[in-house]
Specification:
Number of helices: 4
Shape: elongated
Distance between the termini: 93 Å
Structural class: mainly alpha
Strand content: under 5%
Length: about 160
């Protein structure tokens, strides 16, 4: 009796699932029929081959002649070269100022050590004034170069 009941139970469940599957298929078909159809035609390769249209080719216009733009690496190398040259000029100006300051200090010391008043007031004062004017111009150049280095550092990120 148990095997018979089991077979009936199995048959009943399979039949109900089969009916549910049929209902699902019917629902899908009706939903597909209700969907909006595409209004545009799909163009296939055969349609393209049958076409009588002409392909128009426009002549290429020459590009305007512009100089090539430098790359970022080239810009960086150029900036680095400019900074290196500027640093060399700055170092040379600093060395020039230091040399002139030493020369001025030595002339001042010789002025005080000199016993001959004519030589002291004639030659040494003239030399001192010449070195003093050269030192002033060298300091102005150094200030200009130092001002340029602040502009260079402000340009670089």
């Amino acid at each position: 009796m148990k095997p018979l009941a089991l077979a009936l139970l199995l048959l009943a469940t399979t039949w109900s699932f089969g009916a549910a599957a049929d209902d699902l298929v019917e629902t899908a078909r009706t939903a597909k029929a209700k969907r909006k159809k595409s209004t545009s035609k799909v163009i296939t390769n055969e349609d393209v081959k049958k076409s009588k249209g002409k392909l128009l080719e426009t002549p290429l216009r020459p590009l305007p002649d512009e100089p090539p733009q430098p790359t970022l690496a080239e810009k960086h190398a150029a900036d680095r070269k400019i900074r290196a040259e500027h640093n060399q000029l700055l170092a040379a100006a600093k060395a020039n100022v230091a040399t002139l300051e030493k020369e001025l200090a030595a002339l001042e010391q010789r002025y005080y050590e000199e016993d001959d008043l004519d030589r002291r007031d004639g030659e040494l004062v003239k030399q001192f004034n010449d070195v003093k004017t050269r030192l002033d111009t060298a300091r102005k150049e150094l200030e200009q170069l130092a001002g340029g280095s602040s502009q260079l550092s402000a340009k670089t990120p």
